[in-house]
Q: What sequence folds into this?
């Protein structure tokens, strides 16, 4: 007989349990109070980058009956029945409680006022956003986060992303009191204050009052803050509002044994709502471990919860923070080895036993690269080198049983086994077969290192002719000023080249402004599209796309396009990029078509190139009732600035005149959305095969700053991306991700921004229309013939038929193949 | 033999197309080492007459032209498709006489 398992709570841990039981004989019914499918709460803060909840969704589960938006309101343990808010009753053979936590809100008068929020669910974030958007303060908004722990700092960062300057109020004398010691917290405070956060430690809010549309918070130290929004982030409490008459742990939570079973043998509790032998855990990894324990038990196993490592490593507002083991040196006689480098902005403390032999724990701030090597050494002998000045923990050998991925409890052994048996040869395969790296992602650099240590060459070679990656070749070409493919392959490659390296090098040469792409030394490198400055279609004809900056066109020019299309019999279609594509031109016709277009003032639209395509726009303030900036004007300015820019892949852009986003800028490589105060810049979005919403890079900047940052962003991408890597894949592969990108192109951490801007300035000043260049040069023109021995004779294989009043290609017969 | 063009007109690592009296087409390539090759111009995978516009290079040292449509490589000397060994295209005779390139 089928047994029924009821799970209450469709959060991260409940989801994991159902996943672990897939394929088992249990019938599973899940009650989920939230109306959306289970999502990645750990990554909740990234919701503000895209405001797309789909980006956070966990892998969908099959085989379970998941009742979204149905809160479990009571449980009858006698009859083994769970009752849902809709009145539905489900009887169970086993019940698992996975109700998570509730945010703790200190009893401050005014805490229930509109504009006060907690920070736990997607709905909470939507609420915060609504408050911020409704605020009518000119300039940047102002907010307060109550609580300066890990979550509080994350919430503060999220507020920044919404254009709010946050005050962080922490009762303890330092930030992140649980994880970090005084020395580390001091540095942390200095680093985060640079980022527009105001930190108030050793105080708390004594009241919050509403004043018109504002909130006024009074702090215990006498300060008064004038605010638009308040976020409580003062800790969490296990959620036990569903009263089953079960015993609770000393710090709340349903009390369970090491098998995660309550005193009722049919009822289990896992995740943040569980108190395992009296201990509660506010991290996802221990919750996952509990889910695995219960899945095993339900399948007849005997697994128990082994306890959990509460070490954490995170990047808060771009600052690395890690703490592990006995971070506060509470072990009897523990010694501390502290290195505080105020200049470099790094702080590290190792806690060792009284004989200095055993590593007990530590704290790292500013640079946590040593964390993956150090954490597994806790409780083991300290390598002597580590205690010497200059000792570098990042180079230490890890023991085989060391946990590399704490989110999924994967050891080094498991990973090296997967690599050595040949099951996994790269990070993606390791993720698929071990799950390591699929949680918070902080262990990915370690996975890369293990691959290298195991001798797996992470080949970045462009093709068989170059052992370098595209980014490396770019640097070589830039540094050596080599201007021809022949010279490059002779010195730095082998063989004659191929359809991969030739266009890639041609693109690099073009990005570095080496003259017309059909110049004598470059023409043989180009793909047919670039060779004929048009897009090859299936029957060997080409399509023609004149540039229409921002999608704005006069009736006169529109008529010219219509006339050209009519006179040459071209199939005509409006593209998604707000311009017009003319299909069916033969090689011989291209120059004649373009002569007419150039005479009418058109330029190449680069639809054929890995280059800037279009900058779409909506009508903005000029016409639209809602517009707040001149989106068309900016789109035209951007399109004219970046036209002709060659890049690793095509580049698309758009500008919307207000937050309604009619131009779909978030689906572009760089998209701009107008705000009351300026512009928000989003980067690395795309449609296509794997759509991705662009991430917010900077907000509320003026036009000059905006253009400066786009210049840097584009040049940084052009220099460092792989061949045919769109900005989205590039950003996802970038070590340090969006934060790192921001450090490089906004904060100029690498000191290369001047160079990037200069490179763009030279692109802008050297730009020349490629089609005009062809029309003015008889030698280039001569290439536009179908047959060298019969110029002007049309290709007899090209024939057309009519469809809906236009000419379309006749399907080509596949000619006989000689075998 | 059909006249293609003056040898001068050819550029290393590039192709040109020529029309034969029977209406068929041939792609003629000059490689970097100075040798000449002629193949059918029609790409058997797309049916389009475009091989002369492909990128010339080598695969593991074997000189090839890569179709610009779906990117299969054809060996210049034999017409064999390296990506789909069961497919090959016709090779034509090519020579230079008095500075003029000719094919059959
Ligand atoms: C902003 C933020 C950042 C975080 N960062 C990290 C991090 O970096 N690392 C880390 O390890 N952890 C982090 N966490 C903690 C992590 O998200 C939690 O540990 C994890 O989500 C716990 O999973 P859970 O399933 O126990 O609870 P939850 O994910 O909270 O799920 C519980 C679910 O049960 C539902 N529920 C409750 N009662 C009922 C009922 N009666 N009927 C039906 N449904 C009910 C709730 O609505 C909720 O959806 C973070 C948390 C937040 C909020
Ligand atoms: S994005 Fe805003 S300004 Fe632009 S058309 Fe839409 S509503 Fe109008
Ligand atoms: S440690 Fe979080 S994914 Fe591996």
A:
């Amino acid at each position: 007989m089928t047994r029924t398992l009821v799970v209450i709570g469709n959060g991260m841990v409940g989801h994991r349990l159902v996943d672990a039981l897939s394929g088992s004989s249990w019938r599973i019914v899940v009650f989920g109070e939230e109306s959306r499918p289970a999502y990645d709460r750990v990554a909740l803060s990234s919701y503000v980058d895209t405001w797309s909840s789909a980006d956070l969704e966990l892998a969908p589960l099959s085989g379970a009956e998941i009742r979204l938006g149905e809160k479990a309101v009571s449980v009858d343990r006698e009859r083994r029945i769970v009752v849902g808010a809709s009145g539905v009753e489900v009887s169970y053979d086993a019940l698992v409680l996975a109700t998570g936590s509730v945010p703790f809100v200190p009893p401050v008068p005014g805490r229930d006022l509109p504009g006060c929020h907690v920070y736990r669910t997607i709905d909470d974030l939507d609420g915060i956003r609504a408050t911020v958007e409704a605020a009518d303060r000119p300039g940047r908004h102002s907010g307060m986060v109550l609580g300066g722990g890990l979550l509080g700092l994350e919430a503060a960062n999220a507020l920044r992303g919404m254009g709010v300057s946050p005050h962080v109020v922490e009762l303890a004398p330092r930030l992140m009191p649980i994880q970090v010691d005084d020395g580390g917290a001091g540095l942390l405070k200095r680093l985060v204050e640079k980022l527009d956060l105001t930190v108030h430690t050793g105080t708390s809010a004594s009241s919050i009052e509403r004043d018109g549309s504002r909130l006024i918070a009074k702090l215990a130290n006498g300060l008064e803050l004038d605010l638009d929004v308040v976020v409580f982030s003062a800790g969490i409490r296990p959620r036990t509002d569903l009263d089953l008459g079960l015993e609770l742990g000393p710090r709340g939570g349903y009390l369970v044994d090491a098998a995660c079973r309550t005193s009722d043998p049919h009822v289990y509790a896992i995740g943040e709502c569980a108190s395992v032998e009296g201990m509660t855990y506010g991290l996802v990894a221990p919750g996952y471990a509990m889910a695995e324990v219960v899945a095993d038990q339900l399948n007849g196993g005997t697994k128990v919860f082994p306890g959990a490592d509460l070490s954490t490593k995170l990047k808060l507002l771009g600052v690395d923070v890690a703490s592990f083991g006995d971070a506060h040196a509470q072990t009897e006689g523990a010694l501390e080895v502290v290195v505080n480098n105020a200049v470099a902005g790094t702080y590290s403390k190792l806690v060792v036993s009284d004989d200095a032999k055993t590593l007990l724990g530590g704290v790292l701030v500013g640079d946590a690269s040593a964390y993956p090597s150090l954490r597994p050494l806790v409780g083991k002998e300290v390598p002597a080198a580590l205690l010497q000045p200059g000792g570098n923990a990042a180079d230490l050998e890890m023991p085989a049983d060391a946990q590399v991925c704490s989110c999924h409890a994967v050891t080094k052994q498991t990973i090296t086994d997967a690599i050595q048996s040949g099951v996994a040869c790269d990070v993606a395969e390791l993720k698929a077969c071990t799950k390591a790296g699929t949680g918070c992602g902080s262990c990915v650099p370690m996975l890369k290192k293990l691959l290298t240590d195991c001798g797996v060459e992470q080949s970045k070679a462009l093709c068989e002719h170059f052992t370098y990656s595209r980014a490396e070749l770019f640097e070589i070409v830039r540094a050596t000023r080599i201007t021809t493919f022949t010279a490059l392959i002779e010195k730095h490659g082998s063989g004659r080249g191929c359809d991969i390296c030739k266009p890639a090098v041609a693109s690099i040469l073009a990005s570095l402004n080496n003259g017309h792409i059909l110049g004598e030394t470059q023409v043989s490198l180009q793909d047919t599209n670039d060779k004929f400055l048009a897009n090859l279609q299936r029957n060997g004809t080409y399509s023609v796309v004149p540039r229409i900056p921002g999608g704005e066109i006069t009736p006169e020019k529109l008529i010219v396009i219509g006339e050209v299309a009519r006179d040459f019999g071209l199939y005509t279609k409006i593209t998604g990029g707000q311009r017009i594509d003319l299909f069916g031109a033969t090689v011989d016709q291209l120059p004649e078509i373009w002569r007419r277009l150039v005479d009418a003032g058109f330029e190449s639209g680069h639809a054929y190139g890995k280059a800037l395509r279009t900058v779409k726009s909506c009508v903005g303030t000029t016409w639209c009732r809602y517009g707040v900036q001149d989106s068309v004007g900016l789109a035209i300015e951007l399109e004219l600035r970046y036209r002709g820019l060659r890049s690793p892949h095509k580049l698309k852009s758009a500008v919307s005149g207000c937050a309604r986003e009619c131009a779909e800028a978030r689906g572009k490589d760089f998209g701009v959305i107008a705000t009351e105060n300026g512009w928000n810049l989003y980067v690395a979005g795309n449609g296509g095969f794997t759509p991705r919403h662009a991430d917010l890079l900077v907000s509320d900047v003026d036009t000059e700053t905006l253009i400066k940052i786009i210049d840097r962003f584009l040049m940084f991408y052009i220099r460092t991306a792989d061949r045919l890597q769109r900005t989205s894949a590039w950003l996802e592969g970038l070590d340090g991700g969006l934060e790192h990108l921001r450090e490089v192109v906004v904060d100029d951490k690498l000191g290369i921004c001047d160079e990037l801007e200069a490179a763009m300035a030279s692109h802008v000043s050297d730009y020349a229309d490629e089609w005009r260049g062809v029309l003015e040069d008889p030698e280039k023109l001569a290439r536009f013939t179908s047959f060298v021995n019969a110029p002007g004779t049309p290709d007899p294989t090209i024939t057309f038929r009519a469809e809906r009043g236009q000419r379309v290609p006749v399907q080509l017969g596949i000619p006989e193949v000689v075998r | 033999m059909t006249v293609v063009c003056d040898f001068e007109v050819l550029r290393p690592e590039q192709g040109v197309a020529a029309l034969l009296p029977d209406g068929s087409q041939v792609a003629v390539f000059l490689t970097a080492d100075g040798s000449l090759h002629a193949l059918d111009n029609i790409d058997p995978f797309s049916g389009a007459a475009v091989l002369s516009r492909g990128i010339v290079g080598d695969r593991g040292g074997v000189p090839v032209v890569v179709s610009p449509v779906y990117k299969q490589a054809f060996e210049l000397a034999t017409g064999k498709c390296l990506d789909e060994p069961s497919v090959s295209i016709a090779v034509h005779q090519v020579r230079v006489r008095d500075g003029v390139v000719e094919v059959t």
